[in-house]
Amino acid sequence: MWLKLVLRAERLVGERVEAAVHSGTYFDVATRAKRTTAKASATVEGISRRALHLANLPAGTDIRRVREQLSRMERRIVELSKELDEHAAEREHEPR
Fold it and tell me: Is the pLDDT score of 70 beyond 80?
């Protein structure tokens, strides 16, 4: 008995929620919410970056840039190591 009641309530609520989620209004609200959130995040990040720089501390963007640069350097070191290994292998096989 209670299962039938729960399923009926779920159908009533589910249909309304599904209709709302597929409406144009929902997409408009979701888009505005996303833009507002992104704008607020950018504002807060800008303020915190300025405050950290005033205190002569690195901000998250600074750390991200350094990590990207370090990753590029690590990839380049791996490439150079492979080239050196190949060069050394070629020299070992050369007739003396």
Answer: yes
Phi, psi dihedrals of residue 55, rounded to the nearest 5°: -85, 5
User: Measured between alpha carbons, how far is 83 from 91 in angstroms, rounded to an integer?
Assistant: 12
Q: Which two tokens stand for residue 18?
A: 């599904």
Check if the beta carbon of residue 74 is closer than 8 Å to that of residue 80.
no
- The CA distance from 45 to 91, in Å, is 54
Q: Where are the alpha helices (DSSP H) in 1-96?
A: 2-21, 24-54, 60-93
Q: Is the pTM of this model over 0.90?
A: no
pLDDT greater than 90 at residue 19: no
Amino acid at 49: R
